[in-house]
């Protein structure tokens, strides 16, 4: 099978973590990719594509229950890491807290990784909320490349966590 061969070659050439996602969260496609990456010996990071607003009760199609059900299936299928892929930067702080704390409660031992784009400008606040709610990893970009369609600012995250329980312990020379 082509997918398995591609994953095997990638693994042989140094790729360790395989983020598997489908932009429409179509589970059969994701399971195919997860199986290929896992069979090659890779670390499987199943990523749920986020849309909508889980904190808005008027939004019913992509509700919290929708994401939790999908996460159940991905964990059951053997993902090593559960990821939220916020391609459009729609994840806001309140939704971040609700989604990540619910995932953390349901899967206390599964690493949670959040990837967002700062398209709407709320990326720093959303990633801080995700970290507070129990995410293990949040993606950021170096300040000069951050914002807009890139990831939130690393410098802003580091500055905002200084002196808190989330302090990155980054030391800089004065």
UniProtKB/TrEMBL annotation:
Q: Which PROSITE patterns match?
A: PYR_CT
Q: Which domain of life is it from?
A: Eukaryota
Molecular functions per Gene Ontology: pyruvate carboxylase activity
Coiled-coil annotated spans: none
- Gene3D superfamilies listed in its UniProt record: Aldolase class I (3.20.20.70)
One record GO biological process: gluconeogenesis
**Pfam families annotated for this entry?**
HMGL-like
| GO cellular component, as recorded | cytoplasm
Cite the Pyruvate carboxyltransferase domain residue spans from the record.
Answer: 1-174
Q: Which PANTHER family match?
A: PYRUVATE CARBOXYLASE, PYRUVATE CARBOXYLASE, MITOCHONDRIAL
Q: What is this protein called?
A: Pyruvate carboxyltransferase domain-containing protein
């Amino acid at each position: 099978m082509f997918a398995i061969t591609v994953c095997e070659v990638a693994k042989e050439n140094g790729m360790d973590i395989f983020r598997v996602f489908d932009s429409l969260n179509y589970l059969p496609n994701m399971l195919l990719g997860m199986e290929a990456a896992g069979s090659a010996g890779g670390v499987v990071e199943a990523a749920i594509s986020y849309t909508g607003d889980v904190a808005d009760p008027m939004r019913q199609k992509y509700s919290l229950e929708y994401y939790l059900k999908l996460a159940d299936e991905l964990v059951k299928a053997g993902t090593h890491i559960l990821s939220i892929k916020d391609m459009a930067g729609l994840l806001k702080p309140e939704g971040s807290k609700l989604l990540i704390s619910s995932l953390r409660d349901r899967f206390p031992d599964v690493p949670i990784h959040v990837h967002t784009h700062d398209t709407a400008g709320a990326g720093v606040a959303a990633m801080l909320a995700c970290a507070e709610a129990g995410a293990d990893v949040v993606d950021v970009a170096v300040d000069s490349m951050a914002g807009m369609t890139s990831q939130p600012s690393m410098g802003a995250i580091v500055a905002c966590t200084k002196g808190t329980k989330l302090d990155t312990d980054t030391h800089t020379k004065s």
